[in-house]
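Backbone geometry tokens:
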Amino acid sequence: MTTNLDSPIVFISYCWTPVTNKNWVLSIAERLMRDGVIIIIDEWDAKEGQDKFGFMEQMVNRKDVSYVLMICNKDYADKANKKKGGVGIESQIISSEVYNKVDQQKFIPIVREYDDSRDAYLPTFLKSRFFIDLCDGDAYEDNYERLLRRLFNKPRQSKPPVGKPPSYLTSEAPIYLNTANKTYPLKDSILNGKSSTHGLIQDYFEAFFESVVDLKLSEIKDPNHPPIDELMLEKLIPLKLLRDEYLDIISLILKHNNIDGEGLFQFFENFANKVNKGISDPYYDYNNHIQLFLNEIFLYTCAILIKHEKFELLSTLLLRNYPIERNPGQVDFESYSTTFNEHCQYFDKYRNSRLQLNRVSVSADILIERVTNKLINSDELIETDVFLHYISLLNNIQVWFPRLSIYRRFWKTPIFIQKMQSKRFFEKIKVAFNISTVQELQQKILKLDQNIYNGYGFNYSFPRIFNAFDIDKINKLN
């Protein structure tokens, strides 16, 4: 017989009684053979004149037999415990192997029957072993697949490779965030609908701001010794932890409707003021890492709102101006694109030149490298960046520069624009675009200056707004 070298050789130990059990064993043996398993069973392989006990002992101990399946019904368990008949002989051999080798995985109990108390019929020496249930029922096929995967050592869920520990674990100083003791009581309050939730949200936000301020750099006389960009990258490590913690919290808050547009707007207003206080020119600020973090948090928040179609909340963030006090006593009202889309001089120019990286945008590289959160993937973040760009154009405010678009893999129309062909989706998203009708969207696009993309390199691969929206298709379905 020609066989696949990867086919496991399996011996089946079973009881001939009742006859229905024997017939079932033969049918499962045939099925396993069809699925590539080499089966050894007395009905097929024991020859006339051969000592049956010797045959059983040989099969159990054969080195090329990968597994022994023990088909456990009431009769099998009784005979094994009483050491009666062929089953008794086999069980003595098997139990010796099991007892002498605690990690013995060669022997796989297959349960075919339960007693009245729903305890599986298993020989005493197998009571502590994991088994596979092949009683007839809804789970039969799933468990058969489980058995087959076990025999071929092809588990449904493979153990992932061991990676490198996060850098914050290997750093000499442990990282402690001010929010550490705020997250558990807040999550508990949200999940259990407690009246204290609103106050705990404010407490968490204040602790969040304190953590950000603590990671600012003090005034540096010589940014070249040590290189300031390296200091900023070090500070971004704990900020990533803070980001992921924030995303878990904000997702939970949104899921349970514990925040409205005003509350979310106030969070970003306070956040921006904490970051920009006393900074008249963020372009040359020694805290570009905080500016980048502010951009990152705003991007992720918008991405989550878009993903869950929370466009009313999103419109509050995008269509109102933020009162920002960059200089003491002077408040300027800034759009989201002015406040949350600062150019990062010390990454994009200084670091790029110092290390001769020749990168289009080092800050974009950093943001993409940090996309490890399970809630939002890189494609969703990039699409959000493009979305914010379109919104800025349509509302005649400072242009949001979509730096992440250098990572767009295809020149495809963004998903949110494709979905606008659905009347249901258009009716929901239009509030974020600050429009009421498709015609109004079309008029806004037609009024735009055709030269707005002068200076954009070919590296920024996203559809320009004049080509992005297929008004005819959107209008036809709306």
